[in-house]
Amino acid sequence: MSDTVETLQQRIKELELGYRKKERELVHLQEAQKREKNIALMKADQQAAQTTEEREGDKFLRLLMENSYDLLLLLDQEGRLSYCTKTFLEFLHVSDSNTVIGKNFAELSGVFTGSTLAIELKEALEKAVQKKTLVELTGTRFLNSDNPHEYTVAVLPMINPRREYEGAMLLFHDVTEIEEANRNLKAQRDAITIMQDNLKAGIFLMDKDFVIQGNYSAALEEILVEKDLAGKYFTDLLSFSFSAKEMESVRDYFTMVVNRLVSASKLDSMNPMDELNYVSVTSRQEKTLRCEFASIDQGSGQLFILATITDISRETLLQKQLQQEQQKRESEMRSLFEVIQLDPAIFSEFMSDVVYNSDRITAILKNKDVESSEALIEIYQLVHAIKSDAYILGLEDFGGKLHDLESEIKKLQQDEDTSFSKMLHLVVGVENILAEQDKLEEIIGRIRNFDKEKTLDNVDNMMLESFRQACARISQDLNKQVRFSMEAVDPELLQRIPRREVKEIIIQLIRNAIYHGIELPDERAAKGKDPTGVIDLSMQTKKSTLKIVLKDDGRGLDFNRISEKAERQGLIQKNKENKTLLAQVIFMPGFSTSKDEGAHAGRGMGLSLVRARVKDLHGEIKLQSRLDQGTTFTLLIPFSDQ
């Protein structure tokens, strides 16, 4: 018997060594793929410098196609193939791309084995075009019998800034080696699990009062990190793993097991300890355990519960790591698809603003002389500004991370004791944003060379385009119809004004006008208004003053609602308010009349940011509003052409 145990233990060691070897192989494989991808991107960057006559967007796609190791297809509006990677030509056994360029995708789909995948691709393409969003097929696919590789499949519609469909990209990402490594890892895990079940499982009996009987397996004490278990209540050992209310449910479950009140299959589905986050009552050590229970008769008519406990902490940790790696890979894919559709100059300007605001956040966190409450407001405003631009450009993944960082800041603001040491917890969140920023720069920086002089020459067009995109994006997300007018804006003037501050101000005013001012089409129609709301922006200089006016024809300010919310927050005294005071309240940090928080409003930072930037420019704000007729913001900022 001892020889058998030693043999089993030796086998476990061999399997564990093999398992760790496979883990290292998987890491090396992923690093090798990353190096190959970086080499391809560097080649693309070199070739991009040689084709300056092409449009930046077309140049990016062409370089991506020529250097990608994946199967990549680009279809035009009519579904005809316009570009494809060399890898795809090799897959078709074709040397000259002219033999396939211009062919309809329906003709090419026949190269994929069986009708099922061809139908899935057609349906995915139709769905992507209809919803104007990325569509991924679940799982992996084998494309044909001659090519035994496994691929993940995604379809991306190409949408221009006017939200018009211009074509689609099909991506078949080769995951053969990763999937094979995952299968090998799973086989190793399964083998180890089987050995653990036979040698290292904690097995014991407990009576109807949940008392552990003697003669339990030696592994039980190691698993539970407790000694001398005989005679102890098993439920007492779980006191740090469940709340008092949860423990009542556990006792009820054990009662059903020992009395055989329901079928075994039903009990398995009800098991509250199938995956238990266990905390030892003695050492406070944490583990993940899998517990199984069954009722047995010892022959005397007395029923006992047979318990089998397995430590699955290692398996659970590995699964989490694999999930995190998958999430990271998906995040990088989403970022690639989001960045690929951006105008190079606009993206360059956006990244410049991100770097500028990130540096300001870092400086605030390092400055111990600034009051914590004041620092939190400034950081909140800077994060809000970056998030606004990210969502407007369609960088949903980046915007979502910034939205989460805003939530962390808001929690700190609600803490009465906001010490400087607590604020340092924000450093982790800021570092994550900086890492995301670096990832975006790496994606675009290795492929495109931005013409800085061109960017400066077109600063007016970029700013106006940012305003148009903001209006289009926000109105679409909120299901509102808006016509944005900038006829009274002198493009030449935009090159002489403080660009970053003015841009942030106007973007926030546009968001505020659409979210709070412009009504939904049905609501406007019921009021006798045109279903399409109007936002008008004018900008001019007079003497030494820059005058910016943004007005909408929406619902106007609801002073009663503002008053009620301000009273609840203790910002004003009851029956002491007036319209002038209430108009000042809406600019306070954290004040919002919205009931819900979302990507575009609800956190009370938009107008607070406007006031802060106008103050930075030594300007002033004037506000006019009439119920159901609209609101006008007038900004007067000292200005000089010198």
TrEMBL record:
Gene3D superfamilies: Histidine kinase-like ATPase, C-terminal domain (3.30.565.10), HPT domain (1.20.120.160), PAS domain (3.30.450.20). Residues 343-447 form the HPt domain. Keywords: ATP-binding, Coiled coil, Kinase, Nucleotide-binding, Phosphoprotein, Transferase. SUPFAM superfamilies: ATPase domain of HSP90 chaperone/DNA topoisomerase II/histidine kinase, Histidine-containing phosphotransfer domain, HPT domain, PYP-like sensor domain (PAS domain). PROSITE patterns: HIS_KIN, HPT. It catalyses: ATP + protein L-histidine = ADP + protein N-phospho-L-histidine. Its EC number is 2.7.13.3. Residues 400-641 form the Histidine kinase domain. The modification Phosphohistidine is found at residue 384. Signal peptide: none annotated. Pfam families: HATPase_c (PF02518), PAS_4 (PF08448). Residues 5-32 form a coiled coil. It comes from the Bacteria. GO terms for molecular function: ATP binding; phosphorelay sensor kinase activity. It is an enzyme of class 2 (transferase). This is histidine kinase. It comes from Leadbettera azotonutricia (strain ATCC BAA-888 / DSM 13862 / ZAS-9) (Treponema azotonutricium). The lineage of its organism: Bacteria, Pseudomonadati, Spirochaetota, Spirochaetia, Spirochaetales.
